[in-house]
Amino acid sequence: MALPTPRQVADDYVDRLCVLDPTLATSLGRTPAPDGLPDLSPAGLEALAELRRATLAQLDQALAGPAADDLVEQRCARLLRERLGADLALHEAGEGLRALSNLASPVHEVRQVFELMPTETVEDWQVIARRLARVPQAYRDFCGTLAEGAAQGLFAAPRQVHTVLDQLAEWSAGPYFATLVAAGPAELRDVLDRAAADADAAVVEVHAFLRDTYAPQAVGTPDAVGRERYARFARSWNGIDLAAGSALEDAYAFGWAEFGRIRDEQQAVAEQVLPGSAPAEAMQWLREHGEAVVGVERIRQRLQQMMDDAMDALDGTHFDLAPPIRRVEAMIAPPGSAGAPYYTEPSQDFARPGRTWLPTLGQDRFPLWDLVSTWYHEGVPGHHLQLAQWTYVAGSLSTFQTTVGAVGADVEGWALYAERLMDELGFLTDPGERLGYLDGQQLRAVRVVIDIGMHLGLPVPDDADGVLAGHRGRPWTPELGRAFLGEHCGSDPALLDSELVRYLGLPGQAISYKLGERAWLAGREAARAARGDAFDLKAWHMAALSQGSLGLDDLVAALAAL
Would residue 519 count as lying in a domain? Predict the structure, then answer.
């Protein structure tokens, strides 16, 4: 019998992973268990780990066959091995037993899957009702996993616990699940209401467990994770081993240099917005006096128009977009979501389109100066063009390379590159919108500095000024990180509070934007240098977006070869 190829092994892994994690299946538009939820108990975590170990053993067998000489198969095999290895390293360190953060943890994933489910027919709502009925057990299992972590001395930091408590309280105030089913059909009213009431009661139970049992035990757990844990997380988000030598210190120095470069550029643009002002003053002026949209539905429509206009301007000139990719929807995020905008990719059959999500944070007035480049990042030509193109070409690669195997630095690096591309192409000539773009760039540079600085306790640079001037040479702390964010980033204070908690709860994720952008830019310039006058940016974009996910170990070389 012929040995499977690495791509077949990878796709078999996705198939089996969808059985263990039905929320992933919903995200991909698959239906092996459309009403199911994952097993969030310690046994469920071990089942995932065993699947990864078995897949790596299958991969070893596949690489003993003729596919070992195929470059396409080699690329898939390399990604599969690196991704599963990173996952197993986190599992073996017990990270799944304390997976609680303000943005990406099982308690959020259970809720968010309902945002992706179809609601067009009575049958759709019957599936929702059955899945809702499974929420209480899923949340009980998750609390049991946290309790097992506590028994082993593994805790999430109190800052994460209390942030999630606030989020759960907001979900209960809705209540979230009762609100979700309010639009359901009358003939299912009773069953939907009962299932939603039980799910909302489970949210209250998780809140009580975290408040009364877990939080008191977690007291004293530091926010910073230290070098060893940080390197594991950074590998997971970036697809590169940063544990050796001075790699993390080098990334920290790169972030600090980018901060200084962008600050100088911000100052020049601030003068155009408000003569004589510093960047922070100009951004505050834009927030209060710049163009704004009033009304939640009106801002949703405006964001949709931004993406439609960008699609029309770029298609045929800098990208060649297949018809399914041209469909993207602007959405309003439900209460209790993360504070920052985000994107959800289309289902594999494009029945559910790609969507951008705007958290309103209770606001009704939305300044536009910083939303334009954000929607270039989240929508077009950012996350949507990359992830929708991956979906479109999945059949010629593997589902793993275009979904589950996505590396954060590749994805976020492309989105940050997309913002820069729009600036290069002249879409950000308005001084206010360009200051918003630079503010986004500065936020990502600051992230590198404070994420590595806080988690590793690195010293504040000797040339620091402003709020850092009195702390030169001293270790970074969360308090210093928040003050630095507030001094140099123009986002709403509530969003910056959320950002800080996010960096502390997802170590290594915050650096993926700038490190990924650096790789995309380096790969483009290497390809341009190699091809000279024959370099075609549109062709390069489409080839780059059609190669599937790559870690930073491989990204620059792959982009340079296109």
Answer: no
